[in-house]
Every structure is written in structure tokens, then in C-alpha cells.
């Protein structure tokens, strides 16, 4: 296997022969307060910990060291077509802003180990707040702006933040979305109340502040600046948590993925050069949101750690103002590599199939397009390749791992692309395909995708204060392996193919959502007897949820009325990001004779795929009813 000039095989083999030696070498890319002498301690934590005796600070590595050596280079370029702003923030300026906001947090009583929730739109202040936490050893937990108050409240109750940092509004294309009512609603719902909130007032909306609890960002920053206080980076254990990021689990209760400081920096620094092939001084753009793992790793931490300029884009691929928006940003800022979700390209392709807007721009700096977050369908990959004339690299990873599990390491010399496959495992990941009993299956046979333990640096050591749930969720099903909950196969060249999740998670426009969580919301409606939510194929978003509900006997509302209420309920309880627009009342749900809901068959019917009558079905007529009703409603 391997492209003619790719160093991949040698590098992967070197890791496999001596994992500790490999990562000890990569750790040299980081400035340590005390360099680690232990690379991996198998006795520490749930399954071992990386760099256990190392002392370091992520903010120092991402900001301060570059402020000293490349002060005038842009660290962040904030490009916001929705506000008409382009702002260049140099490493020196970023250090000043971050250190000042660190003082603000300290003034509010935040110290090492305290949690700070960041509920922000895509503005530089979101990254500044994250880095300020990193500077003083506070643990940030960024919550995506598209989540509703109840979701935010669940996260508040899980991590008990001392302070919440938010903004008066987010801007979603043409819509201005006030954040403060959502924040106030969440704090009302939560049992754990923050001591203080810092609100960035944006010109579009002036949020009202709760006296004694809420503070104006600008006022606090001005005060800290006047006092000239800029705390230094606090020395932290490599194993201290940098952040907690909640992601959908198989219930309504999200999982708090913990990220450490040392291993995270080492893994991300390796990935920037070797996987993405981008060098210090160049420009990298991850068109995602700081609320997702892609935003954490590749808008904020990885590029900055490597001295690379990062684009922070507050806009959409289409409509802000047109489907040429991405080309404009790449051209204007000299972007070397773009990382986004396939859904963004499907959106562009839908509006501008002939890529006429691309003709308006020259993209000489642009070398590679990276896609992740959901399946990269070959149509989209080939279209992007054709119009851009650069390699389109699919890669596969998860919030849990924090960086790529399987990809095509452009920095080591690109391997041949096979559309439909994210290519090969990165060093650190020993990926296997197993059957239900945990036995490895031969090439091309489908199975569960697992990773031999231990996980590499950068991957989660545990879930926030839930070692047992971590073990139960990821390590118990296949002892000795991390279960990814994805299914797939490896071909004869060692290329991996991801075929879908084995649990109830669906991917809606690259956003990870739990259908189980949506079912919990639907079941809470007083008129609903039972329900099932499935992910239905969608040409733009990849998948969208579709809920089937059975109403309680004696409900005397019209079904359409209840359906409307259910759509509104999911939006209210989970958020608009769930894109739950289709609730369908049916007389009963298709079940096996033992009572298991036949979600798989319902999904096939909804997708218009071939399906066969399950032998174990209790009541065959209901599938015909579902097929009929879907014909009218899709
Ligand atoms: N704050 C508040 N609301 C938000 C939000 C935020 N940060 N992000 C999304 N929403 C809302 C949207 O406005 C939309 O609301 P609506 O139902 O009133 O229209 C809803 O949540 C669904 O959002 P989204 O799934 O993003 O759909 P969309 O139709 O607005 O846009 C795309 C579709 C493809 C253009 C968009 O998903 C996109 O740009 N994706 C690119 C890549 C990406 O972000 N990937 C994520 C992980 S890498
Ligand atoms: P998230 O944690 O939000 O990054 O979602 C992770 C899940 O998204 C994975 O478990 C996969 O199901 C899916 N996913 C991510 N990247 C890819 C990819 N390149 N191809 C197919 N599925 C992907």
C-alpha cells in the first residue's frame, strides 16, 4: 500500500514498533515547563494517561510563544459576511486580549479547575474566552449556539460552571438570534447556578443584564486593562483537563468528553503538519463552529499551536451573500487548506451546480480540501475535485478522539484517493473490524470498527466525572478495544470504509444528534403513546430526523395539530439544530413479535431503499401504511 512518494507506511510502522518513542519524539514540538519523562503510564486513569509527569500550558504554546517570535503575523482572521467585518488579530494582539480576559475571569473568582461555559456565536471573543481559560487552568465547556435552553441547562447541571460567557445574539445567515433569553431560560431550569455571566453586547441586539449576576464584557475588559493586570500562563499537569465538550450519546443526556492539555497539544501539533500538510505562517480554514469538536481542534487550538493563521468565519456556504462565499474567503486570505463538512459542498453544489461563482476568484494559494463529520458521498467529492482542481481528502474522526482516526496524510505525501473511503489509520490508532463476538473479520467483511487500546494522545481519557459511564459506553463491549459505534470494512489495500453508526446517533448537516434524545422529547408530549425517530436520507443535510408517533386513545385533537406541536417541542427542547421538521402520526409502530421497534426497516422505507418484510414482524400491514403515508409527506 502507499503512494509512490508517501512516507506514510514508514511513519505508521515506526509508531507501531515503538508507540512511546514515537510520541516522545512528537512531544518535542511543544514548549514544556517541565518536559515529561514518562510518555505513557498504563496504570494512571481509566486506561492509562499520556505524559503524566509533564508540566505545560496550552495558552503559552498557542499564543505566547508565537507572540514572542511572530508577533505581527495574523493569529486569527475574523471574517464575518453577516456583519460586514474582516478583522485581523495578530499573535501579539491575541496575547494581549487573552491575558486581559484571563484577568477578568480571575476577578470573577475563577481559578484552576473551575469550569466556564462559553455559549457564543462565531466571534473572536469565543476563542479569546477559551484561550483565557486555558491560560489560568480553568476548564472551558463550549456549548453550540443552536442548542435550546434545556440542552444548555443539562450541560450547566453536569459541569457546574462558576461563570458563563455569552453574547447578546448570534447571526445565522439573515436571522439575528437573541442568545440572552436562551441563557436566562437555561439558568432558570438548571439546579447549578453560575456565580456570574459575562455578556458580549453586539450592535444588533442589546441584551438586558441581571443586576449582580451579569456583566458587560467590554466594561470588565476595560477595567482589567486599566488595572494593567495580565496573568501569566499557569503551569498545569499535562493530564489536567483543558476542556469538556458535550456530545450526543444514546440518551437525552449528553456525554462530557474530557480533553487534557499535554496529549492534546502533541497530537494536534503532529496533525497540522503531517496530516493537513500546512506550515507555520500559512493560513488554515476550518469552516465549522467553535461549538463543535472541529472548531475546538481546528479553528482554535491546532493552527495556533503550530503558528498558523486561522480563519474564524461567521457565515454560511450559501446565502452570505451567495454560493461563492467560500471561494471569496479562500482568495481574500490566501487559504492553503479548507476543512469543512460535505453538507457545505452539497449546499454550494445545489445552488451553483456549474460553479459559476468560482470563476470570479483566483485561488493560487489553495492546495487541499478536507472533509469530515459525516459520510463524504462520492458525488460530492468528485464534484469538488473537478471544480477546484485540488485533492479532496475525506477523513474520519469523532468528538471523542479530538483528531483524525483514519485519513490521508497529505503532509507525509498523499496516498491515492479512493472516493468513499477516508483512507488509512493515523499513527496512534490500531483500527480493527470485529464481529459481534469481538473476533476480527476478513478484508471486505462488514463489522464494528474498534481501536485497540490505548487510545493515542489527544483522545478522551474519560467522561467528565463519569469514569464508569466512560468504561460502559466505550470499553466494555469489546474488552481491550475502544468501540467507535461506527460500522464498516477495510478493503484489500487497507483502506477503511465507514458505513454508518451502530447506535441511534444520526448526522444532520454534519451535526451529531441522538434520535433517542428526540424520542424522549416526543414521549413527553401528553398526547403521545409511543414513538420512534429515525434518520432519513436527505440530499442536502445527509440525514434529517423523522418521527413516527402513535397518539393515546381518546385524544380528540387533529393529528396535524399534534404533529405541529411536536415539531415545535423538539425545537424548543433540543434546538433548531435538530432540524426536526417531520412528525407523522401512525396507527401503530411496526414491531417484532418480541416488541422491538423495527427502526431499520422504517429507515429503508423512508429512504426509498429496497426493503423486505422482516420474518419476525408482528403486524405486516403497518409497513404498507408507513410507506403510503411517507409518499405524501416526504
Ligand atoms: N445558533 C442558532 N441557531 C443555529 C445555529 C447557531 N449557531 N446554527 C444553526 N442554527 C439553526 C439554523 O438557523 C437553522 O434554523 P431554522 O430551522 O430556523 O432554519 C437550524 O439551526 C438548522 O441549521 P443547519 O443544520 O446549519 O441548517 P441550515 O439550513 O441553516 O444550513 C448548511 C445548512 C448546509 C448551509 C449548514 O449546515 C452549513 O453551513 N454546514 C457547514 C458545515 C458545518 O457547520 N459543519 C458542522 C460540523 S464540521
Ligand atoms: P462527531 O463526534 O460530531 O464528530 O461525529 C462523529 C461521527 O460522525 C462518527 O462516529 C461518524 O459516524 C461520523 N463521521 C465523521 N467523519 C466521518 C467521515 N469522514 N465519514 C463517515 N462518517 C463520518
TrEMBL record:
Residues 518-596 form the AMP-binding enzyme C-terminal domain. It comes from the Bacteria. One of its GO terms (molecular function) is propionate-CoA ligase activity. Residues 8-62 form the Acetyl-coenzyme A synthetase N-terminal domain. GO terms for cellular component: intracellular organelle lumen. Pfam families: ACAS_N (PF16177), AMP-binding (PF00501), AMP-binding_C (PF13193). Residues 64-454 form the AMP-dependent synthetase/ligase domain. Gene3D superfamilies: 3.30.300.30, N-terminal domain of ligase-like. Belongs to the ATP-dependent AMP-binding enzyme family. This is Propionyl-CoA synthetase. It comes from Phreatobacter oligotrophus.
Amino acid at each position: 500500500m502507499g503512494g509512490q512518494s508517501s512516507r506514510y507506511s514508514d511513519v505508521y510502522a515506526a509508531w507501531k514498533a515503538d508507540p512511546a518513542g514515537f510520541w516522545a519524539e512528537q512531544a518535542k514540538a511543544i514548549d514544556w515547563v517541565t518536559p515529561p519523562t514518562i510518555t505513557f503510564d498504563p496504570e494512571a486513569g481509566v486506561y492509562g494517561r499520556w505524559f503524566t509527569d509533564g508540566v505545560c500550558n496550552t495558552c503559552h504554546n498557542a499564543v505566547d510563544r508565537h507572540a514572542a517570535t511572530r508577533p505581527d503575523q495574523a493569529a486569527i482572521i475574523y471574517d464575518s459576511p453577516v456583519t460586514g467585518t474582516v478583522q485581523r488579530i495578530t499573535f501579539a494582539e491575541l496575547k494581549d486580549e487573552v491575558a486581559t480576559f484571563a484577568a477578568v475571569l480571575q476577578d470573577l473568582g475563577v481559578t484552576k479547575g473551575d469550569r466556564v461555559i462559553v455559549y457564543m456565536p462565531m466571534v473572536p471573543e469565543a476563542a479569546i474566552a477559551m484561550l483565557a481559560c486555558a491560560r489560568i487552568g480553568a476548564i472551558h465547556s463550549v456549548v453550540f449556539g443552536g442548542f435550546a435552553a434545556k440542552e444548555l441547562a443539562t450541560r450547566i447541571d453536569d459541569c457546574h460552571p462558576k461563570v458563563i460567557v455569552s453574547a447578546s445574539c448570534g447571526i445565522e445567515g439573515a436571522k439575528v438570534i437573541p442568545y440572552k433569553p436562551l441563557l436566562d431560560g437555561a439558568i432558570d431550569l438548571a439546579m447549578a447556578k453560575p456565580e456570574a455571566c459575562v455578556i458580549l453586547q453586539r450592535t444588533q441586539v442589546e441584551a438586558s443584564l441581571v443586576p449582580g449576576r451579569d456583566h458587560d464584557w467590554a466594561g470588565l475588559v476595560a477595567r482589567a486593562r486599566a488595572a494593567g493586570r495580565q496573568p501569566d500562563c499557569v503551569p498545569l499537569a499535562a493530564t489536567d483537563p483543558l476542556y469538556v465538550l458535550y456530545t450526543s450519546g444514546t440518551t437525552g443526556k449528553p456525554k462530557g468528553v474530557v480533553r487534557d492539555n499535554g496529549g492534546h497539544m502533541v497530537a494536534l501539533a503532529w496533525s497540522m503538519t503531517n496530516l493537513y500538510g500546512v506550515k507555520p505562517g500559512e493560513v488554515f480554514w476550518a469552516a465549522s463552529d467553535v461549538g463543535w469538536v472541529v472548531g475546538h481542534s481546528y479553528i482554535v487550538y491546532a493552527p495556533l499551536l503550530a503558528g498558523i493563521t486561522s480563519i474564524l468565519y461567521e457565515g454560511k456556504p450559501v446565502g452570505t451573500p451567495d454560493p461563492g462565499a467560500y471561494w471569496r474567503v479562500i482568495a481574500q486570505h490566501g487559504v492553503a487548506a479548507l476543512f469543512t463538512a460535505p453538507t457545505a459542498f452539497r449546499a454550494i453544489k445545489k445552488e451553483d451546480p456549474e460553479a459559476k461563482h468560482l470563476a470570479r476568484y483566483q485561488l493560487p494559494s489553495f492546495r487541499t480540501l478536507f472533509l469530515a463529520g459525516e459520510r463524504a458521498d462520492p458525488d460530492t467529492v468528485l464534484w469538488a475535485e473537478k471544480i477546484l482542481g485540488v485533492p479532496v481528502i475525506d477523513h474520519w474522526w469523532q468528538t471523542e478522539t479530538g483528531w483524525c482516526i483514519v485519513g490521508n496524510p497529505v503532509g507525509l505525501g498523499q496516498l491515492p484517493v479512493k472516493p468513499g473511503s477516508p483512507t488509512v489509520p493515523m499513527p496512534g490508532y490500531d483500527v480493527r473490524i470485529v464481529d459481534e463476538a469481538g473476533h476480527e473479520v476478513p478484508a471486505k467483511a462488514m463489522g464494528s470498527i474498534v481501536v485497540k487500546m490505548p487510545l493515542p494522545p489527544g483522545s478522551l481519557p474519560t467522561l467528565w466525572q463519569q469514569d464508569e459511564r466512560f468504561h460502559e459506553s466505550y470499553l466494555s463491549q469489546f474488552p481491550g478495544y475502544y468501540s467507535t459505534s461506527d460500522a464498516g470494512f477495510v478493503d484489500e489495500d487497507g483502506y477503511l470504509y465507514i458505513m454508518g453508526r451502530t447506535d441511534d446517533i444520526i448526522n444532520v448537516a454534519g451535526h451529531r444528534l441522538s434520535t433517542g434524545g428526540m424520542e424522549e422529547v416526543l414521549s413527553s408530549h401528553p398526547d403521545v403513546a409511543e414513538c420512534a425517530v429515525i434518520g432519513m436520507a436527505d440530499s442536502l443535510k445527509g440525514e434529517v430526523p423523522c418521527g413516527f408517533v402513535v397518539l393515546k386513545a381518546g385524544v380528540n385533537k387533529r393529528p396535524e395539530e399534534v404533529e405541529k406541536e411536536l415539531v415545535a417541542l423538539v425545537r424548543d427542547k433540543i434546538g433548531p439544530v435538530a432540524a426536526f421538521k417531520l412528525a407523522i402520526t401512525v396507527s401503530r409502530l411496526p414491531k417484532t413479535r418480541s416488541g422491538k421497534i423495527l427502526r431499520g426497516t422504517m429507515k429503508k422505507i423512508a429512504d426509498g431503499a429496497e426493503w423486505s418484510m422482516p420474518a419476525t414482524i408482528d403486524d405486516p400491514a403497518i409497513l404498507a401504511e408507513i410507506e403510503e403515508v411517507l409518499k405524501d409527506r416526504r
